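Let us work through a complete example step by step.
Step 1: write down the sequence.
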Amino acid sequence: MKQKELVPKRRFKGFTDEWKICKYNDLLDKSEGIRRGPFGSALKKECFVPNSDYVVYEQQNAIYDRYNTRYNITKQKYEELYRFILNEDDFIMSGAGTIGRISRVPSGIKSGVINQALIKMRVNKYLVDLDYFLQWMRSEKMQNRLTQANPASAMVNLVPMSEVKEWEVTVPSIEEQQKIGQFFKHLDEMIALEQRKFDKIKALKSAYLAEMFPAEGECVPKRRFEGYTVEWKDYKMKDIGKATGGTSIESEFVKEGKYKVISIGSYSEQSVYTDQNIRVNLSDKIKKRVLNKNDLTMILNDKTVSGNIIGRVLLIDKDDAYVYNQRTARIEPDNRKFDIQFLYQFLNAPLIRQKIINQAQGNTQIYVNWTRIEELQYSIPILEEQIKIGDFFRKLDATITNHQRKLDKLRATKQAYLHEMFV
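Step 2: predict the structure and record it as tokens.
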């Protein structure tokens, strides 16, 4: 191994020694190093009981790093499967489907065993720092090594654990491991904190969406700004503005072009997302599909059978930058009667959009025709109240977006460090 491969690109000050080469198995506990879960026949459905102090841990626990459980077993079955008991500071790794995801077992979990889809690892605590081991196993280099693709197919498979044990790996001293482990633990805590803030503000918005627009059969919402008492007026969908259905423009797609294409995959809660590789240039066909700032586009067709995205609306944020494709409709709002920010939030509110979803048709693909929804009736306030509501949600969205950016930046920072701080 070359000199440059014995140290990472980035290190903490004061550490200059080369990292040591050893076998992966040398880092593991001698008696309980790596153990795959029991055969499926050892944990059949008939083994499960409604209530017990003993549980079964599954692949989802490793994937989502959470230790909630679904299945209980008797004490007798638990003792029978003693080799698969999970202890604090063990590591579990997903071994099927979504493979290679790893989690460190926290303190205070219920007594339980792993199932056949999990792999349990226990390290030698005198040689390996637990925080370091977790981050090392989650690093891109180790994940790629663990989940090697089958050359003969597109499938990704987990490397056999017998082979993993024999790997040559490069690790630092226990002191440097501890420094690295603490660094990433702190970074994870920052990410978790930002995630909680993000989740909280998203939940707050959902609550406001439910309360600031009228429920079915109501003409005023539960929550209003002070000073507004006038009942909301009924409008039909077609009153909101001119609507034009999209048509297929796939024949116009190019990798580099002036216009981004709005399609089903472009719809999110916060902003316009488009596939950067799907663009079009101006042509006679495209001229009719160019969107203006403050246009709305709505999904009319869901490729899946759930229909969950039917009726979702996007607000176009700039002129002469986007075109819309098939399965969407363009709505050009009447800005004399309606505030665009209000309409964007209003039409995306679950209670409002459910009316559109209720008009959906189809089996293999769920869709709605504009002619079926243009007569739908909604209660809408005077323009002044619309502006107040629209501005409120605009500011709330800006806060959500800010938290999302912070979260994305922290995650990107962690990924960069994971790439540079391990050999």
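Step 3: interpret the result. DSSP finds twelve helices and 20 strands in the chain.
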